[in-house]
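Figure-free illustration: sequence to structure, shown twice.
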Amino acid sequence: MNFQKVISGFFFILAMTTNFGFFYGDPSSIEHHSKWELFAAIIVNLIATILKLGDKTQLGSVLLATSLVADIQLIGAASVWALASYVFGGLDLESTVVIISMSGGALLANVVSVLLFIGDTLKSKR
């Protein structure tokens, strides 16, 4: 068993599931989406990105690209949340939908990353 692959797979899947946990819920109600879960999703995604930095293969480049996309989307969502809350006087429906939509884009990038990781794992077993 390759311990590095176990740790990497753990963080790739954890990034996807924490992002899904934040994303799931009514997009028009911010009460269904925890700011702490968004924060956790950002931290776990950043850890997953760091774990992808050492891979010099073509697949490693694609995995890194998916992680960077997820990071940018989640940090953007947190930025919109912070700006709406502290600069523009509070969250409205439009900013809530933007936050959830950006999280959805990050979730899609996480799903692609996990699918590529699973595909690579299956390919290496043959």
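We now fold a second protein in the same way, so the two outputs can be compared directly.
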Amino acid sequence: MTHVLELLHAIASDDAQFSFLDAEIRGQVRTALAAGIGCVLKTQIIQNGNKTGWCSQFAALTLEPSSARKM
């Protein structure tokens, strides 16, 4: 997730490396970046009123922490 958000940030901030992308695509990337950051913040675990970290896996529909698959 971190590297995806870094890539989206580079595109959204008009990095010359991505100058081939048009304004419409950059607008879509800005929207995706905001949604990604919102998701990261929403899934942060709060324990005793303090934001502590993230779990390894989340439920796809509710974004609630879930247990990992059994192997």
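Summary for the second example: Helices lie at 2-12, 23-42.
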